[in-house]
Design a protein that fits this description.
Elements (H helix, E strand, L loop, with lengths): L6 E4 L7 E5 L25 H11 L2 E7 L13 E16 L5 E9 L29 E5 L6 E4 L4 E4 L9 E2 L10 E2 H7 L3 E4 L4
Parallel strand pairs: 1-3, 1-11
Antiparallel strand pairs: 2-5, 3-4, 4-5, 4-6, 7-8, 9-10
């Protein structure tokens, strides 16, 4: 059975190949405010934000699906959704956003063995130095990886691969079926790529 990393659906991202982007929280979505774009409190590293920070610390791979809704990005597809490959989160931090509240930010870098869909290359991504981000000078709560990532480039094999297997999870995610079949653990779902994490619009 083919296994792989979880999927992040990117609806609005700037320069995802080597760029930073905001994440979730900070908006009042109660009642009929589900599309509220005004931030009313600070974003924190909780829930999805914390999950992405754990991915940063451990070097987990993340599959990225990009939407045409990101009008400001030259990498966005012309229509619909497009699978953009496997990425890794290299750093994460918080900064003061344009509305005066803190926002969580992440640096995604492509780590895929296949060529990027927007290029004519016949090879995948290669390890390279991280881009310099001026906003990190005034950033808060910066997180950087202190160990070798679990998804990394193997020089001997010449490809990106799992260097170590992901840790086992004791949490069981129920399938919701009552047919007596065995429940699927969170780890199994992650490896099968069954998680689809919605990504918010930029603040």
């Amino acid at each position: 059975m083919k296994r792989g990393p979880p999927t992040v659906q990117v609806e609005s991202v700037t320069q995802l190949n080597d760029g930073s982007k905001n994440c979730t929280g900070g908006r009042d979505l109660s009642g009929n405010k589900r599309t509220n774009k005004n931030q009313s409190f600070d974003q924190k590293f909780l829930k999805l934000n914390e999950a992405l920070r754990v991915s940063c610390k451990k070097g987990y791979p993340v599959r990225v699906v990009r939407s045409f809704k990101e009008k400001r990005s030259s990498y966005a597809p012309e229509k619909g959704l497009r699978y953009d490959g496997i990425y890794r989160i290299e750093e994460c931090w918080r900064k003061i956003g344009v509305q005066g509240f803190k926002v969580c930010r992440y640096l995604f870098v492509r780590c895929d063995n296949d060529p990027a869909p927007w290029t004519s290359d016949d090879h995948g991504a290669h390890p390279r130095p991280l881009p310099e981000l001026p906003e990190l000078k005034n950033a808060l709560d910066i997180t950087k990886r202190k160990e070798r990532p679990l998804w990394d480039f193997d020089e001997l094999d010449g490809c990106w691969k799992w260097i170590k297997p992901p840790p086992l999870s004791r949490v069981v995610a129920h399938t919701g079926k009552s047919d007596g079949k065995k429940s699927i653990t969170v780890r199994e779902k992650l490896l099968k790529g069954l998680f689809s994490i919605p990504y918010p619009h930029l603040q």
